[in-house]
Amino acid sequence: MSKLSSLILLAAASIAVAGCKTLPPPMPLSQLDPQQAHGHDLFQSRCAACHYDRKDGSLHGPSMLGVFKKPSLPSGAAATDERVTATIMHGRGLMPALGNTLDQQDADGILAYLHTL
Ligand code: HEC
């Protein structure tokens, strides 16, 4: 095989690996630690009206499935704790800011739960 075609194959393989279908599944709910479970509860009450967590597809906002397993957020920003915390606290576009109704412990819990998806 030529060097060029192996390079193309390699590129195609990396794209396939980054694609949603090959992401590892979310951690089963029964295996969440207390902080992650607290985050799951908060997600149900504060986020689930607008975001799916354990399946693909948009509700009012994009699904959070694999949010930290993908290289970037739906907006294209890097999928970092800082960026996601800022989105939760200050809002973004049509997403309302939730900072005045969540304390640091709540925000940390939600983040911990998002990391299990
Ligand atoms: C009232 C509906 C609503 C609620 C409640 C809501 N969101 Fe969102 N969220 C949105 C919408 C709409 C977007 C798309 C915003 C945009 O990119 O303009 C979004 C985007 C996001 C993004 C992607 C940001 C990016 O840079 O692409 C994350 C992460 C997120 N929300 C997390 C959360 C979490 C966690 C909660 C709960 C604490 C939450 N959202 C609650 C509507 C909501």
Overview of the structural elements:
- This protein has 117 residues and is mainly alpha-helical.
- It has a single domain (3-114), classed as Cytochrome c-like domain (Cytochrome Bc1 Complex, Chain D, domain 2).
- The chain has helices spanning 3-18, 34-46, 81-90, 104-114.
- The chain starts with a helix and ends with a helix.
- The mean pLDDT is 90.
- The structure holds heme C (HEC).
Bound molecules: heme C
Radius of gyration: 17 Å
For the biggest sheet, the summary is: none
Estimate what percentage of residues fall within beta strands.
under 5%
- Structural shape: globular
Specify the structural class: mainly alpha
Mean pLDDT: 90
Task: Give me the number of helical elements.
Answer: 4
The CATH fourth-level homologous superfamily: Cytochrome c-like domain
Question: CATH top level?
Answer: Mainly Alpha
- Structural domain count: 1
List its traits.
single chain; mainly alpha; Cytochrome Bc1 Complex, Chain D, domain 2; binds heme C
Q: What's the short story on this structure?
A:
43% of the residues lie in helices and 0% in strands. The chain has 117 residues and is an all-alpha fold.
Any chance you could write out the topology, listing elements then pairs?
Layout: H1 3-18, H2 34-46, H3 81-90, H4 104-114
Helix pairs in contact: 2-4
The structure holds heme C.
Heme C binds next to α3.
Protein name: Mono/diheme cytochrome c family protein
Keywords: Electron transport, Heme, Iron, Metal-binding, Signal, Transport
GO molecular function, one term: electron transfer activity
